[in-house]
Amino acid sequence: MGVPLKNLAAVGGSPLVARAVRACVRAELVDEVVVSTDHRDIAEAAREAGATVIDRPDELSGATASSESAVLHALDHLPETPDVVVLVQCTSAFIDPADLDAAVTRVLNGDADVVFSGLETHEFLWNAEGDGVNHDPAHRPRRQDREPDFRETGAFYVMRAQGLREHGHRFFGTVAVQRVSPHHAIEVDTPEDLEIARALAPFVDRPEPIDVDAVITDFDGVHTDDRAYVDQDGRETVAVSRSDGMGISLLRRSGVKLMIMSTEHNPVVAARARKLEVPVLQGLTDKRTVLRDWLAIEGIDPARVAYVGNDVNDLGPMSDVGWPITVPDAHPRVRAAARTVLTRPGGAGAVRELCDRVLAARPVDQVELATAPRAELRLNPIARPVQIGEALVGSGQPVYVIAEIGINHNGDVEIARRLIDVAAEAGCQAVKFQKRTPEICVPLEQRDQIRQTPWGEMTYLEYKIRTEFGLKEYSQIAEHCRERGLEWFASPWDVPSVEFLESMDVVTHKVASASVTDLELLRALASTGKPIILSTGMSTLEEIDRAVEVLGTSRLVLMHATSTYPLPPEEANLRTIVTLQERYGVPVGYSGHERGLQISLAAVTLGAVTVERHITLDRTMWGSDHAASLEPSGLEHLVRDIRIIETALGDGIKRVFPGEEAPRARLRRSYGDEVLHRDANASR
Fold first, then answer.
1. C-alpha separations of 14 from 20, 201, 395, 667 in Å
2. pLDDT digits over 516-558, tens only?
């Protein structure tokens, strides 16, 4: 059973004929793309994809007509005959333009008269009578002992045009095979083939820029992972990706229209839309009609619109726009209807991926405007952000909040797990530990000193060994951080600890203030090629200069710090953040050891791009760092207030906000009204 009008069947959201045309258009050695057809809709789809259409006469349109006859008819209607002609069959869903160029080159160079697409195979073929076709059944050599055969994929045939005219068929002279990838060898002849092609499309198709003027998204399953968390009072919360917010902001600033549409009527949707500064329409029963009305009001061509959905109620609006898009875990019918399937799931960066691809298609001046650093409360040059894991740390990015567990786990991996949970629930991006080799780091004169510990009396060296984590504990920590969506890293205090952390593949390394002058350690860290975060407590500018010289500045983040525990306000010296920014031209954050939140929050207003604070389950716990640490509620408030400050800082562009419109209209008197009033008085 075949597929009716299969050239119009959609794979990856595009008709097969359009996919074939676009592959040819992208090939560098193809000068013109011509489609021969007798069907109006196929002709329209071909033209939209960039092809010239030649009407095929009835006598060449029947089931018995050959493909060669259609090609020769098309050649007769071209202004001049090309040297090389490429016969492309639209039933091949995945044609690589590079393969087309390679095949054309071989014909142009005279290596062959005809080159066709073939898939290398070592399969044994049999006929219906049970006879071996390409092998002797009595002799079955191993795969590695056999020369491969090639199966025609049917995707393309490149040939000398004059040779085609002379012979009347596609195979003549010297014939060669252009090897193609197994991913590109799918032919759509049956409904089952079509299903396979549609399933492969998200994995085979190369991401392309999405050139649109408006982006409309569903909410559940696109901005979220389609789950909701319900508390004992019935209130819902959802999980979203912070990176989506930056993507939406850049898209909005580039001039792209945005809208969220949802069938639900939920305060969570409204709250997220307010956060993103995106209009939202909720409680919709017919998204398609609402979308059509909105586009008509805005005067936007539906072909220049992207709609992102994930379930069957999105099929209507998806069918009306030029870019129907979905997420990888969408309903199968939605995936089949989508022109593009994003690689990231909803709630895990799908919206950011979409925004990046839309921005990639925008004019350069609009992208530069969108990505230009926002005006901030600082006078220094803007430093290039540093990539740490999946986060960009720098100006214009969300503040990177690090919860320092340090040694506050007291050697107990369960305490460490609980502190990781605290950091995750507060909204931090990372947790940090300290890693030492006690036999190297503990000074000789301190090793045998007796300490009173929760585990009894022991030497200081025994105590440090007792509280140090090894491979087993850090493996558990790494797994738990992965489950909670956090990055983790540590401050290594010696070279073997650097090597240990490298074996754990941490995303970055932190240099403790005490190690700023340890040049051997700094050189070991520089050799890793990883981003480095350098704390500057108890250091002079000359000492920092030397450390920066060793580490370089391309992947460096400095941290202003004062190594007093706890830190009194008069020693915070926060304006040093600006000094470090101006002197070194790198992102600068703040590592705080104070009690309370005020100093850390002030650091953010001065431009700190990352904030690190020690955390503890209880400040009264035994250990040297607990007293200067934040308890869970304090950390939660810190992250909350940092995000509020980020929003409040704005972009520095003076404007009238929506909330000001009503009082402006009510309280402001226009200049024209004032003149009329004066003229009236003058006439009395």
1. 10, 10, 40, 54
2. 999 999 999 999 999 999 999 999 999 999 999 899 888 999 9
CA dist 60 and 73 (Å) reads 9
Residues 273-283: what's their mean pLDDT? 86
- The pTM of the full predicted model, rounded to 2 decimals, is 0.46
DSSP 485: T
Whole-number Å distance between alpha carbons of 187 and 153:
7
Residues forming beta bridges with residue 402, ordered by sequence position: 430, 612
Distance CA 570, CA 585 (A): 26
- 86 vs 660: CA distance, rounded Å: 63
Sign of the four-CA dihedral 353, 355, 356, 362: positive
Distance CA(81)–CA(60), nearest Å, equals 20
β-pair type (400-406, 430-435): parallel
Dist CA 182 CA 486 (whole Å): 38
Which long-range contacts does 507-510 make (Cβ < 8 Å, 24+ apart)?
Answer: 507/388, 507/389, 507/430, 507/531, 508/388, 508/389, 508/532, 508/533, 509/533, 510/432, 510/534, 510/535
Q: Is 240 helix (H, G, I), strand (E, B) or coil?
A: coil
Closest C-alpha to 253, from 284, 220, 278: 278
Q: How far is CA 372 from CA 253, 338, 367, 399, in A?
A: 10, 32, 8, 17
Type of residue numbered 81? T
Q: Calculate ∠ Cα 605-607-612, nearest 5°.
A: 90
> Number of C-alpha atoms within 13 angstroms, CB side, residue 186?
21
The two three-digit tokens of residue 678, written as one number: 């004066």
Alpha-carbon dihedral of residues 419, 425, 429, 433, nearest 10 degrees?
A: 0
Question: Percentage helix, strand, coil, to 5, in the chain?
Answer: 40, 20, 40
Q: How far apart are CA 220 and CA 236, in angstroms?
A: 12
CA–CA gap between residue 291 and residue 321 (Å, rounded): 10
Q: How far apart are CA 416 and CA 683, in angstroms?
A: 83
Largest CA distance in the chain: 121
> How many other CB atoms are there within 10 angstroms of residue 228's CB atom?
15
Q: Which two tokens stand for residue 523?
A: 């050189």
Instruction: Give yes or no for residue 312 having a pLDDT over 90.
Output: yes
Q: Please write the tens of the pLDDT for every residue from 476-498.
A: 999 999 999 999 999 999 999 99
Q: Which residues pair with 158 in a beta bridge?
A: 86, 115
**pLDDT score for 669:** 62
> What is the Cα–Cα distance from 457 to 38, expressed in whole angstroms?
93
Exposure string (b/e) for 409-448, b if CB count within 10 Å is 16 or more? bbbebebbbebbebbbebbbbbbbbbbbbbeebbeeeeee
Judge whether residue 593 has pLDDT over 50.
yes
